[in-house]
Specification:
- Two copies of one chain form a homodimer.
- Chain A is of the alpha/beta class.
- The first copy, chain A, folds into two domains: about 110 residues, ATPase, nucleotide binding domain (Nucleotidyltransferase, domain 5, 2-Layer Sandwich); about 150 residues, Nucleotidyltransferase, domain 5.
- In chain A, about 35% of the residues lie in helices and about 20% in strands.
- Chain A has nine helices and twelve strands.
- The radius of gyration of chain A is 19 Å and the shape is globular.
- The two termini of chain A are about 20 Å apart.
- The interface between A and B is large, with 50 and 50 residues.
Chain lengths: ~300, ~300
């Protein structure tokens, strides 16, 4: 019997549940995120209905989440503003329902893990995965392991200088127009220009400003972490002209200070989009399930 | 015979050479940084004159430096603007002269290592050491190992929003007044206010502005790395009112977004000055020498 693993990509607007072993072997279902009760029941039902029990389940969750295994709230979604979801015991609830080991991570670290196993970060011990969409979040690996720490990275809330021609007040509930997410998320673009990014033309001035903000954030990330590669995912990055503009502006802003081929002739391989497209998260959840199962087996 | 280790704290203005095993057993000499030839000869002479050979030497060097062991320039100071010092084979030269294993690190990672072994970072797998003085630099540990990556962190060059009352053009050769070092280093304070920080009173408005810039940088660092503690060293931090102001402003700017006791009631233990004072670097170099020797012994 093939060893099958379960993966859950738990987002604020949609959930993806999957069963399989990797990119070539994956059965998936996706549904809207409603209440925690209903949504987690749908997850449990998906896995329970598949007959033979899964070895382990990996969860990549929207946050903030508690990743501290010594904490009473480990496996919880904690202080999210999403109605009904604050203090939800995501990992514990599914572990009890499905009686299998659960791996629990942030959504961005999970996507990073997918790219590490099958995508743009293979073989890299230090890299960043950043998603720019409804919200902005970042994760990745440092010294060969996913980034945790006091809590977990919240790269959407780096403070940035304002673009000189930007009069938008900013959309972050906590930081207004001071932080990256407040200035450069999908909703910030829509509010600033009066319509969603997808309806603005490729030559709209919005993209120059957006690329500027993303590049400023990348300068901060490069100077703080010195990653070997940066992967930019999320809906906003699907806008055609953006990736090249971000690459150019990041190099311009660094102005030659960090001397590395990756930041000169290697720029197109240094700042990239996810090789797995929008499947990084769900595949990362499968990889997380396998790691959780292997670790558990090692402990027995 | 006691095992003795050598440590070199190689700074742009002064060098410290030391021989010993830790804080309670250390013989030190310090001298001005002149040409590479003369300075490295004085280092070699100090160790050679001590009779019994040292087991290994740890070097914490000003930078940028090449830390990639696969690189031909490993152990070099690379693109420094300091006259005469660009492309200096620091580690190789001393290894040949003294015929012992050499550990080579950035000055800030070395100071971080000192604080990890004997100071404010004991037992922490994720922390940042930031020095704010003539220049600004940062290092530390992530997942239990010193931070490397594409090159190494350059936290002085994070871009920051301008303080609304700041008209100073900025002092960074690469980034003017756009980056942390350009706005908040010791020379930037002196140039902005017309005299060195040490001559400004404790109630001078300079400190509110300085604390604001440091706090902005800490927000970026906290959101990017999620460290378990931040250690602030360097000459500028010796100004009395500064540490408390930085603690308060960092919490104000984060505005409750990152929910952790360390960022509320634990703030005074979260943002701290080095427990080893100005000895973090030289003690870290001794710790680096010991690690280098133990690793070498493990390989034999």
């Amino acid at each position: 019997m093939t060893e099958r693993f379960g993966g859950i990509e738990g987002g604020g607007t949609k959930f993806v549940c999957a069963l399989g072993t990797g990119p070539e072997d994956l059965e998936e279902v996706r549904f809207e995120t409603t209440t925690p009760e209903e949504t987690l029941r749908r997850c449990a039902t998906f896995f329970a209905a598949r007959g033979s029990p899964v070895r382990a389940i990996g969860i990549g969750s929207f946050g903030p989440v508690d990743l501290d295994e010594r904490s009473r709230a480990y496996g919880f979604i904690t202080s999210t503003p999403k109605p009904g979801w604050a203090n939800t015991d995501f990992a514990g609830r599914l572990g009890r329902d499905l009686r299998c080991p659960i791996g629990f991570e942030t959504d961005v670290n999970t996507a990073a893990l997918g790219e590490f196993h099958w995508g743009a970060a293979r073989g890299l011990a230090n890299f960043v995965y950043l998603t720019i969409g409804t919200g902005i979040g970042g994760g990745g690996m440092m010294n060969g392991r996913l980034m945790h720490g006091l809590v977990h990275p919240e790269m959407g809330h780096i403070f940035l200088p304002r673009h000189p021609r930007d009069n938008y007040a900013g959309g972050c509930v906590y930081h207004g127009g001071a932080c990256f997410e407040g200035l450069a998320s999908g909703p910030a673009i829509a509010e600033r220009w009066g319509k969603p990014g997808a309806e603005l033309g490729a030559d709209h001035e919005a993209w120059e400003m957006e690329a500027h903000y993303i590049a400023l954030a990348l300068v901060s990330i490069i100077c703080t972490l010195s990653p070997e590669r940066i992967i930019l995912g999320g809906g906003v990055m699907e806008q055609q002209p953006l990736l090249g503009m971000v690459q150019r502006k990041t190099a311009e802003l660094l102005n030659g200070y960090v001397r590395a081929p990756a930041l000169n002739e290697g720029l197109k391989e240094y700042i990239v989009t996810p090789a797995l497209g929008n499947r990084s998260g769900v595949l990362g959840a499968i990889a997380l399930a396998r790691e959780t199962w292997e670790r558990r087996r090692g402990e027995e």
